[in-house]
Amino acid sequence: MRAGIGDTGVVMASERLFLAVFPDAAVAGELAALAAAQYARHGLPGKPLAAARLHLTLQFLGDFEGLPAERVAAVKAASARVRLPAFELVLDELATFAARRRRAPLVLRPGQPCRPLQALRAQLDERLCAEGLLPPDRQPFEPHLTLGYAARAVAPEPVVPISWRVHEFVLVRSLLGQSRYQPLARWPLA
């Protein structure tokens, strides 16, 4: 897919690259059901994301007009050096994030810090920075799983916990505007 030209004459990105953890199909179904129930409960218009798109982003790696093969190879090499055990991830708090757009992300996040998740992100950051793949002024990590986008804010509230065993992380190519993800590589956690 080729990117289009925006109103400003600037070439728009057509692809996004990120590292993430995905729930298995059963947990993704639970998450989708929770999202639908919360949309109804809060009277939010629209619909939540499809179960297959639900993930927790570990690191955003950029938007591109065609993925640069050398960057993908460098990310793969850096990610392959991560060594951590599998861990349990518990998501038990619903909220919206402030956004500079019309709709704010409706998210599910850990109510308490998940140290193994933080360690995974830290190790990835260390490896990616060593390869010059991350800017030094990146945003702090706020772990969350986006359920959809809300037209209004939802105050943080506890929900029945949903958890899964994180046993791998994935390098993903997102085709912008198409709601499609393509896994490019996977790395197991011991």
Lateral strand order in the biggest sheet: 2-1-7-8
Helix content: 10-25%
Bulk shape: globular
Spans where pLDDT lies below 50 across 5 or more residues:
1-9
**Biggest sheet details:** 4 strands, antiparallel
Number of helices: 3
Rounded Rg = 17 Å
Helix/strand layout:
Layout: E1 15-21, H1 25-41, E2 56-64, H2 69-79, E3 87-96, E4 104-109, H3 115-130, E5 145-150, E6 157-166, E7 168-175, E8 180-188
Antiparallel strand pairs: 1-2, 1-7, 3-4, 3-6, 4-5, 7-8
Helix pairs in contact: 2-3
Description of the structure:
By secondary structure, the chain is α+β, with helices and mostly antiparallel strands. The chain is built from three helices and eight strands, in the order E-H-E-H-E-E-H-E-E-E-E. The protein has helices spanning 25-41, 69-79, 115-130; strands at 15-21, 56-64, 87-96, 104-109, 145-150, 157-166, 168-175, 180-188. Strands 2-1-7-8 form a four-stranded antiparallel sheet, with helices on one face. It has a four-stranded antiparallel sheet with strand order 5-4-3-6, with helices on one face. Helix 2 (69-79) crosses helix 3 (115-130). The termini are far apart.
